[in-house]
Design goal:
The chain contains 13 helices and 17 strands. It has 440 residues and is an alpha/beta fold.
Amino acid sequence: MTFEEIIRLSVEQRATDIHLEPKIPATIRVNGSLRRLNYAPDANTLRQVAERLLGDDDWGHFQTRGSADLCKPIAGVPCRISVLQTDRGTGFAIRLLATAQNTLKSCNLLPSLAELLDRETGLIILTGPTGSGKSTTLSAMIEEINLRETRHIITLESPIEYRLQPKRSLIRQREVGRHTPSYEQGLMDALREDPDVLVVGEMREADAMRLTLNAAETGHLVLATMHSTSAMDAIYRMMMSFPPERQSSVLAQIADTLIAVVSHKMTYRPDTKILVPCCEVLIANHATRNIIRKAEISKMPSILQTGGPEGMWTFERYQSWLDQKSDWVMPEPPVATDESTFQAEAETERVARPSAPVPTPAARRRSYPQPTQEIAPTEAEEPASPPVLRTVTPPAKTSKKSGKTGAMKIHKDGRIEIPEMDIDLNDLIKEFKDRGDNES
């Protein structure tokens, strides 16, 4: 299998993540559970793929650092790719990104989260462990602003995952490492670029947190993500990122600027067979600001329990809301949207390996191995059959053997079905050409 075939097979299986490691079966994540494929890539193949994706400049950095992150469409499917060195060789962790634009409704998120975006200044923190849906919620919130308000939005991401199209708002997306050397430099630059909304892809270091708080304090709406397991842990982690002598002033900044902390985790719903976010929402009311200023972070769970009337949600209450929800929006799986990308990559492989011709998309589909082992038990889900995009009827030709006239079908995934007919190709081309000449 080629790298592109693995991506396409994973899309058919409705996977969200792909893990590749030399000499062990390729593994995909479907509905939160891991499944092994009947294919184990070798170290040399994965190394060549990494070199091709990273290019000469980034390959040198990867060899020094041992890891690299990038977003790139593979076979037309947008992917967030983490390349890493392991004891077996070069490995990959790939997230398949949705091709449709996210909104709060399409992500099955709480509609009242849109009310947080009405504020013109302040800080909204989206937090949760890796893979909990922070980036998806972040893009959905940006799209909510984009659809209803005229604001200047600047994003700092590493890497850019969702390409956002300006609608009512002006959106500028900058990638750390390509368009700016660091989050810190990007934030300092953004404050001189007349923004209304600043989006910080991840608050990792103390300097990035400090500049994010300063931006929220100086009249901007700031949306930022970070890694933690709960709203309480997010505030505690921000405090502990600074030396003791600065923690009280940092807590005062958080208390003055905070709008809300939205903590994420993903839950699988057997009734709809989809993964949906379950959230904890801490609203910065008077009680919340008071305990933050006093560094009494341990009292936050009680604030969440009693803050329901003010729009706060614990994970348990949010789960109850999910159980009562009936208007589910079924997420669209990643689909190949740019067939030219797939064709260009196929041409690259053909030039690099002239002795091994690249099969056509239809032939590739027939050669896919199917998943053979499910690591964590889950309900088997049959991949949806790809719909027919259009039917093209060639000039009437009747098979000499069967006496039937056939039609060629072109599918969305690139497959072409041609019925078994003993048609002379030269005659068919000539007839198409004659038709064109007559029409012109």
